[in-house]
Amino acid sequence: MGNLIWSRVSIPDNKENYVSKYIFLDVDGTLVTYENHLPDSAVKAIKAAQAKGHKVYTVTGRSKAEMYQEILNIGFDGYIGGNGNYIESDDEVLAHRTLTAEDTNRIVNWLHERGLEFYLEANSGLYASKHFEERGLQTMRDYVAYKGHADEGMTVRKAFPEMLFGEDLNRSDINKISFILDSYQDFKEAEAEFSDFKVGTWGGRGEKALFGDIALAGINKQTALDFLLKEKGVDRKETIAFGDANVDIPMLEFCDVGVAMGSGGDGIKAMADYVTDATEEDGLYNAFKHFDLI
Predict the structure, then answer these.
(1) Does the domain made of 3-97+219-290 have the CATH classification 3.40.718.10?
(2) What local confidence, expressed as pLDDT, does residue 163 receive?
(3) String of b and e for 82-106 (b: at least 16 CB within 10 Å)?
(4) pTM
(5) Which fold is adopted by the domain 100-216?
(6) pLDDT, averaged across the chain
(7) H or E stretch including 58?
């Protein structure tokens, strides 16, 4: 089950390649606000950290199609997407596992049978189901509101500016599938139906479940970081991770230092080594200063 694209890099064994720290950043709610605003202070902090010799990676549930140019222009040293199924470093793909066409069709057919709207997440694009735009309008407004920033002007196209509509959903390049929950029971039934996959939820403040998602089992942000560090020959003692939600907890647990955003959920703030300010309150910049990364 699952497609695999794999390549390896050779790491020269010399001290000139030593990097002080590997810094791993979640995107939504950490690097950018829930309205997709990228604080200038975050960009300043990242560039200053890189100038000091650190490596900075994004580690996100987003597929590459959702890494918009404003984010890419920062110039990260690497990117981990799909909550761990895609790993890229220095513009080279180190690993990529996707759902097979059979996997995708099975999930899509089940969602259609239940009348649930969804979108397929691939590096090539975000592919919406037929009625996702209409059905998703209130859900996206709820998503922003539950994060503490009500916006009656929020739309699906504003939330996902490059989402593709009316495309063929019969695909073999899908990282994961997100679907709107009409009720929490939809998640429970998906979990039972797809017990051979990883089924989760995501949404608003306090981890409120607005969406379910389905991906390959045995992959998360922690497994991706473990693979990357082994490929790079980097000790976990040289790592620091930033996140805001429960999905980020494995990453924070794995790294030497785990930092939660002040706007994050109670679960991650309780387990973090340090809690910084909210994203929109210069949280990344202030934490980079606190840990002498800049």
Answers:
(1) no
(2) 96
(3) bbbbbbbbeeeebbbbbbbeebbeb
(4) 0.85
(5) 3.30.1240
(6) 91
(7) strand 55-59
